[in-house]
Known about the structure:
Elements: E1 5-14, E2 18-21, H1 22-26, H2 33-40, E3 44-47, H3 55-70, E4 79-83, H4 94-102, E5 108-112, H5 118-131, E6 138-145, H6 155-158, E7 163-173, E8 178-186, E9 194-195, H7 207-211, E10 218-219, H8 221-242, E11 252-255, H9 260-269, H10 281-284, H11 291-299, E12 308-315, E13 319-326
Amino acid sequence: MTRTTAAITALGGYVPDFKLTNKLLEEMVETTDEWITSRTGIKERRILKEEGKGTSYLGIKAIEEMVARYNVDVTDIDLLICATATPDMPVASTAAYIASEIGAKNAFAFDLMAACSGFLYGLSTGSKFIQSGVYKKVLVVGADKMSSIIDYTDRTTCVIFGDGGGCVLLEPNTEGLGLQDEILRSDGGGRHFLKIDAGGSIMPPSQATIDARLHYVHQEGQQVFKFAVSNMADVSAEIMERNNLTGDDVSWLVPHQANMRIIDATARRMNLTKEKVMVNIERYGNTTCGTLPLLLWDYQNQLKKGDNLVFAAFGGGFTWGAIYLKWALNPKK
């Protein structure tokens, strides 16, 4: 019996025009370009400045780019998953709004929240709907307007994050391509190290929480760094071992863009040269759920059908994981 897998058959991306450079940040908080670059690898990040536009706008623009480039008919989409840590608003589904706005009238939609691992989890979830045989076209969006939850007086977080989004279309494949294997993990004991204290059910919004600036991301950098380095590298090495892959067999590492030192540590553990590691952190910073699809968007013309890709991510909660995928597209001219 031929195995059906979920393969990526189209993709898109979008980043806002405004560039928040390290030089601009030097004027906002006590930091320097040298300090930011040496510790994170980031030189600039994109910020969505337009009033009244949120995460849905980033997702919609990415989908529109995909539709134009790959000639996708949105009415054929069965399901839209939006992985995000910054939904447009509480309760109302951002995914449902995106689906309506792009004209995907035959799709049902839902949001998926797993911090920076959201797109990885979304890729896994979408693939299961394809493998079940029930649905034929699943659109997975990863997008975040991180500037909406960042305190630009906190130099430990404001230098890291940016806004952006991307998407991939999953379809059935019987050629042995697409998603091959996955290792997904979580540990709720880590939620105190990377969080927003207020605005949820434990601490609803109030004037006191606003005055105390409790609606912004708080991060204990050293703890997060330690967990991210070990766990992202561990699952990436584990998925290679489980599938009998060596560094020579892996065409590309597609790593979450949180910190250049974490990316380097993961690549070393996998025995990969830097030429096999997708990196755009210097231009976009950490776009949370947007990092992985934006990497594919930036590198799509270098990817060849049959390439072995290993995706790896780590996020607040803690959440982390790795996916092994065989690329199904030749470069789009």
